[in-house]
Amino acid sequence: MGEKELVITTLASEEYIEGDEAGNHQTMTFWKCNLIFKNNPISPIDNQSLGNEEPDQPNAPSESVSTEAEALVNIKRWIDKEKPKFEAPTKDLESVSLREGTEGREVRIGKQLPPNSRAKLIELLKEYANVFAWSYHDMPRLDREIVEHKLPLLAGSTPVRQQLRRMRPEVALKIKEKVEKQWNAGFLAVANYLQRVGNIVPVPKKDGKVRMCVDYRDLNRASPKYNFLLPHIDVLVDNTAQHAFFSFMDEFLGYNQIMMLPEDQEKMTFITLWGTFCYKVMSFGLKNAGATYQRAMVTLFHDMMHKEVEVYMDDMIAKSKTLEQHIEDLRKLFLRLCKYKLWLNPTKCTFGVKTSKLLGFVVNEDGIEVDLDKVKAIREIPVPKSELEVRGFLGRINFISRFISQLTDTCSPIFKLLRKKQ
C-alpha cells in the first residue's frame, strides 16, 4: 500500500446571520476546506471538513495582538540563534556544478585554490554529491537507535490549547503550501487528541516567502531543561583558527533529520485553518532541540572533533594545515555523513576557503582577528541613557574583550554607573 499524499483543496467560506432576542444580528463567517489523502483507499477519517472553531473552547475570547507579537519576537530570537555561524567573503568564492546539465545543483568553493587542487576538490564533491539534499524528499533522517527527541513534562504542568489566530488570506495560502510539502515529505501526522495545541507563527523572508514556525512557548514552559552543554564559543574559535584551509557546512533542515519519540508527537500539535497536525520529526523552536542535536553530532563525530572537525549544533567545520590533507579530511567526513545518512544544505556550504567569519570573529591561518563589522556596530551605538542600555553596551565590549588591552581599567567609570546609589 502506497504512502498517503496530502492535498488541501481550495479554501471556501460560508456565512450565516445569527440574531438574539433583542433583535441584534451578526454575520458569522466559517472557513472550510477538505483534506484529501491520495494513493490510499479513502476512509471516513481521510476526508475531513474542518472549521476554524477552537476545540473544546468555542466561546473563548480571542488572543490579543500583543500575544501574537510576542510569539513572533520569540520565534525570531530562535531563528537568529539558528543562523549559520560562519560567513566566508563572497568575493573569494565561486560556484561549481555537481551534476553536468542539472541546473541549480551547485556548491561554492574558494577562488584561491591552485588549479590542480581545485580539480581534486571538485572531483571529490561530485563523487559525494549524494551528501547534499536539495528538497524535503532527499532526507532519509537519522536512525532512531542513534538519537530520538523526547518531550518529558514537568509534574503538575497544565496543557494549554491556544486558539486559532487570524491570518491574512495571502499568508494563510503560503502556510497551506508549507503544510502540504511537510506532509508529503513525511514530517507531519494528523493529530486527534488535542491536549496541547500551538499556533502557526508565519515569519516573512526577504524573498517574499514565509517560514512556517510554531508557537511552542507553552510547551517549553512545561518542559524540563535538558543539560547537554553546547561548545563554548571561545574554545570553538580557538580550535578552528591557525589552519590553512577551512570548509564550513550546514545540515539540511538539521532538526527535521531527527525523529520524535512516537508517544510525544501529539504534544507538538499545531492548529491551522485546515485542521490540526503534529510533527513526527523534531521541530524548530523546541526548548531542548539544540541540546538533542548537539548530542547526536557528538555521537556521530566524537572521534573527529577537535581534530579534523568542529561541530556546533547543525554547523560543521573541517579544518586542515594543508590543502592535500583538507581533501582527505573532507573525504573522511563525507564517508561518515553517508554512513549515517546525514545530509548537507548545499546553499549554505563553502569548501576550501582560507578565511571566514565565525561566531563574530575572523579565523585564518594567522589566528583570530576581530570582525570589523562588530567594531563598527559598537562605534555607532548611541550614548546609553538607561541601565539596560549601559549593560547592553558592556556586553558588546565584553564580546571582543580579548582584543582590548586593560579593558577592566578602561571601563571602570562605566562599571560605577551600575553600582547602587550612583
TrEMBL record:
Transmembrane segments: none annotated. Residues 203-362 form the Reverse transcriptase domain. Pfam families: RVT_1 (PF00078). Signal peptide: none annotated. This is Reverse transcriptase domain-containing protein. It comes from the Eukaryota. SUPFAM superfamilies: DNA/RNA polymerases. Coiled coil: none annotated. InterPro entries: DNA/RNA_pol_sf, Rev_trsase/Diguanyl_cyclase, RNA-dir_DNA_polymerase, RT_dom. Residues 45-67 are annotated as: Disordered.
